[in-house]
């Protein structure tokens, strides 16, 4: 009876021949079983091990590489197999992969095969080898079964579509014939476009109202809301849906100004800035640019958030188109193409900068060559005022602060954190940090007259910045990996830092950087601080809204509800007691209960 693949039933040949080796040297499956057991144990634990996004990605890449290389060495060095039988599975894998890439959805590529399919191919192959052992199968049957196991796993890739990564960097898939969320939106949007009523406010000027959110994460870009008087007892008084509907994909957040909601979306071949009535959700106006940004890991659509100032909307698209629009109508007043004008390269995940408007200037990071880093344009005319050299990449946005009694704009890129004079762009100081591989994603935040929180790899640092004898000095007071916000918000409140550390809510002491608690697995979402009530509104990674009381020794979850569906990375906006949320699929408004 045969005891091994293709070996025991095959005639023995002298060592060095092309046939099978003697039956005394059977193929040992223990190494493959051990390698797979170690790999799958790591894979299952990888999502819960505390680490940064970059470390998680590199560790997964290393695990896949070691598994593939280990299998290759084990298989090709198995002297219990003929060279024909050693090379046959490799040929089937290569040919099957080529066929899959030819017929599959465009979202399936060679990386998908390596990172997703190859471990399953190796697992299925080993399972077949174990199953066929001691079954007395003929060499031909064993070869056919092994080839079939490889091809069956690969063929599944031809039936699915990759919808990008979730926060833990694991891929999400759908059947390739199922409509995308963008297709569902376009179908419903076309059907209702003829019945869309024009808002009566469309032609009247916009005025910034108390509590409005005119830019990314609020007027100060810090995620803090003051003056809210919410009823925190959601068990007695639940939030109520005002409206909820589909929209085009994108990771832009929302601004809310004078009863209007403005955001950016992708609609097939057009990138749009869209204005909705905040009360009804009805579309008021849309500005379109005939471009599309899309990449496989995060999907389609713009990343930056619009900014409102002096009756105008300023928005930077995923491919670097900077627009100034009339707020009441969406009419374009001026525009710049940063890629064409600044020699900029579109970043891997698109331009993700939200424009900053200060002193009648619009500031954006141009990602350009030479001295085309941070650039300032005249807010009224679009004329270039000044520009400053910078690093090659950033997903952080310009931030207006006051340090040492001096107003200045901070720009954090992958080479340094720089502070510049608003009027002329003159460099005041810089703090060299980062490299080509560490791209900042968060906003620096002033926490004292001379202290600043800045994201670093792998966490945060408290930086002391002071003017002294006509020069500026910078010094690290602490560097901590006890909170790793990555692309998630963090906020500061009463001497503590709150944020999602690799998807888990945690609190860190602002004075020391030491962690105080870590509790509440909400995924890689975003949050808003309701400062007057010591509470956080957390928008979870799958569209769930959670109310969390903070300030004590541990957080207290007071309520939750599902606001929208799908992967949610966009920042929410709270205006009075109206909460506005969106992701790449839906946009919604909820009325939160208020105190009597």
Structural overview:
A hairpin with a 2-residue loop joins strand 6 and strand 7 (about 270-275). The strands form ten sheets. The protein has a five-stranded mixed beta sheet with strand order 3-31-32-33-34, with no helix packed on it. A four-stranded antiparallel beta sheet has the order 4-37-36-35. A four-stranded antiparallel beta sheet has the order 5-6-7-8, with no helix packed on it. The termini are far apart. About 20% of the residues lie in helices and about 35% in strands. It folds into two domains: about 30-175, no CATH class; about 180-590, Methylamine Dehydrogenase, Chain H (7 Propeller). The chain contains seven helices and 37 strands. It is α+β, with helices and mostly antiparallel strands and about 600 residues long.
Short summary:
It contains seven helices and 37 strands.
How large is the radius of gyration? 28 Å
**Percentage of residues assigned to helices:** 10-25%
- Tally of discrete structural domains: 2
- The low-confidence parts are 7-24, 192-202
Separation of the first and last Cα atoms: 83 Å
Under the CATH scheme, which architecture of the largest domain would be assigned?
7 Propeller
Q: Number of helical segments?
A: 7
Q: Characterize the main sheet.
A: 5 strands, mixed
The strand line-up of the biggest sheet is 3-31-32-33-34
Q: Could you tell me the strand content as a percent range?
A: 25-35%
CATH-wise, what's the superfamily of the largest domain? YVTN repeat-like/Quinoprotein amine dehydrogenase
What is the CATH C level class of the largest domain, in words?
Answer: Mainly Beta
Name the average pLDDT.
89
What is the number of E strands? 37
SSE-based structural type: alpha+beta
Form type: globular
Looking at the structure, the CATH topology of the largest domain is Methylamine Dehydrogenase, Chain H
């Amino acid at each position: 009876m045969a005891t091994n693949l293709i070996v025991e039933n095959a005639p023995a040949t002298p060592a060095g021949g092309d046939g099978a080796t003697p039956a005394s040297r059977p193929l040992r499956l223990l190494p493959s079983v051990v390698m797979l057991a170690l790999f799958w144990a790591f894979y299952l634990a990888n999502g819960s091990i505390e680490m940064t996004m970059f470390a998680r990605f590199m560790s997964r890449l290393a695990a896949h590489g070691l598994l593939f290389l280990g299998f290759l060495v084990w298989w090709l060095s198995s002297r219990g197999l003929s060279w024909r039988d050693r090379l046959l599975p490799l040929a089937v894998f290569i040919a099957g992969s080529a066929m899959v890439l030819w017929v599959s959805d465009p979202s399936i590529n060679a990386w998908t095969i390596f990172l997703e399919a190859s471990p399953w191919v190796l697992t299925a192959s080993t399972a077949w080898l174990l199953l066929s052992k001691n079954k007395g199968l003929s060499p031909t049957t064993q070869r056919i079964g092994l080839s079939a196991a490889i091809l069956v796993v690969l063929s599944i890739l031809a039936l699915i579509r990759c919808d990008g990564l979730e926060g833990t960097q694991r891929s999400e898939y759908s059947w390739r014939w199922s409509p995308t969320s963008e297709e569902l939106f376009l179908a419903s949007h076309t059907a209702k476009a003829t019945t869309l009523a024009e808002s009566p406010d469309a032609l009247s000027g916009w005025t910034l109202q108390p509590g409005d959110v005119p830019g990314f994460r609020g007027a100060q870009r810090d995620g803090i809301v003051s003056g809210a008087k919410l009823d925190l007892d959601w068990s007695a008084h639940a939030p109520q849906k005002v409206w909820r509907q589909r929209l085009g994909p994108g990771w832009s957040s929302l601004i809310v100004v004078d009863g209007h909601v403005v955001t950016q979306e992708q609609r097939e071949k057009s990138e749009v800035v869209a204005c909705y009535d905040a009360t009804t959700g009805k579309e008021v106006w849309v500005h379109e640019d005939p471009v599309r940004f899309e990449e496989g890991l995060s999907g389609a659509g713009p990343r930056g958030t619009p900014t409102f100032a002096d009756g105008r909307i300023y928005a930077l698209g995923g491919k670097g188109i900077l627009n100034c629009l009339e707020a009441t109508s969406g009419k374009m007043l001026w525009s710049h193409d940063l890629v064409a004008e600044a020699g900029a390269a579109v970043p891997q995940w698109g331009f993700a900068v939200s424009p900053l408007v200060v002193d009648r200037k619009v500031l954006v990071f141009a990602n350009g060559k030479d001295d085309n880093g941070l650039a300032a344009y005249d807010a009224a005319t679009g004329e270039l005022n000044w520009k400053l050299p910078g690093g090659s990449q950033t997903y952080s946005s310009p931030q207006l602060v006051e340090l040492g009694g001096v107003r200045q704009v901070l720009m954090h890129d992958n080479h340094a954190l720089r502070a510049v004079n608003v009027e002329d762009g003159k460099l005041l100081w810089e703090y060299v940090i980062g490299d080509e591989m560490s791209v900042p994603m968060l906003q620096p935040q002033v926490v004292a007259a001379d202290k600043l929180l800045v994201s670093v790899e792998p966490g945060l640092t408290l930086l002391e910045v002071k003017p002294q004898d006509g020069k500026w000095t910078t010094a690290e007071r602490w560097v901590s990996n006890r909170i790793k916000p990555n692309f998630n918000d963090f906020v500061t409140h009463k001497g503590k830092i709150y944020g999602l550390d690799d998807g888990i809510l945690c609190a860190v002491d602002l004075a020391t950087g030491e962690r105080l608690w870590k509790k509440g697995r909400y995924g890689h979402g975003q949050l808003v601080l309701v400062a007057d009530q010591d509470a956080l509104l957390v928008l979870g990674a799958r569209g769930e809204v959670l109310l969390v009381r903070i300030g004590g020794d541990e957080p207290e979850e007071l309520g939750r509800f599902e606001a929208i569906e799908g992967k949610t990375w966009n920042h929410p906006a709270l205006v009075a007691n109206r909460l506005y949320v969106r992701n790449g699929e839906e946009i919604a408004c909820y009325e939160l209960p208020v105190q009597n």
